[in-house]
Design goal:
Elements lengths: L7 H9 L5 E5 L6 E5 L3 H6 L27 E4 L3 E3 L4 E2 L5 H12 L5 E5 L5 E2 L13 E3 L2
Parallel strand pairs: 3-6, 4-7, 6-8
Antiparallel strand pairs: 1-2, 4-5
Length: 141
């Protein structure tokens, strides 16, 4: 999204380096999402755009969730604001909070979570609720 750091170059480099890469697939009605594997860069470019201008598989494009096929090592977590303590403000739907909480319960080793934010998005404190997921590291220019 325009107010978030673009991860397109990271994704493209990772795919070309032979890394397994996963992207979110959001589902309407609730905060359900899963992380699905991309085959390659062309697979990514062929994905339709959502109303949020995000490329993701269509609902009829059934792909397994990484949480059920071996898990994830690293998750880049989007946000509107971050604190250096790992607090994060998302867009209020709870997609990442819910997904990451479930992943930490099902994976033997939880994934490293990294927030990428512009310097203007880094604040000293953010209000957090009990359902909000605290991320491990925040990276900013």
């Amino acid at each position: 999204m325009k107010d978030e750091i673009s991860t397109t170059a990271i994704l493209q480099h990772s795919l070309r380096s032979g890394k397994k890469c996963f992207i979110p697939q959001y589902f309407k009605g609730g905060s359900r999402m899963k992380m699905v594997e991309l085959k390659d860069w062309e697979d990514y470019l062929a994905l339709p755009l959502t109303s949020w201008n995000i490329r993701q598989p269509a609902d009829v494009d059934i792909r397994p969730d990484a949480g059920q096929t071996g898990g994830l090592d690293l998750v880049l977590v989007p946000g509107l604001a971050f604190s250096s303590q790992g607090d994060r403000c998302g867009r209020g739907k709870g997609y990442y909070d819910t997904y990451l909480q479930n992943l930490t319960k099902t994976q033997a080793v939880p994934p490293m979570t990294v927030g990428l934010g512009f310097k203007e998005q880094i604040v000293e404190n953010l209000p957090m609720d009990k359902h909000d997921f605290k991320i491990d590291v925040v990276i900013s220019p």
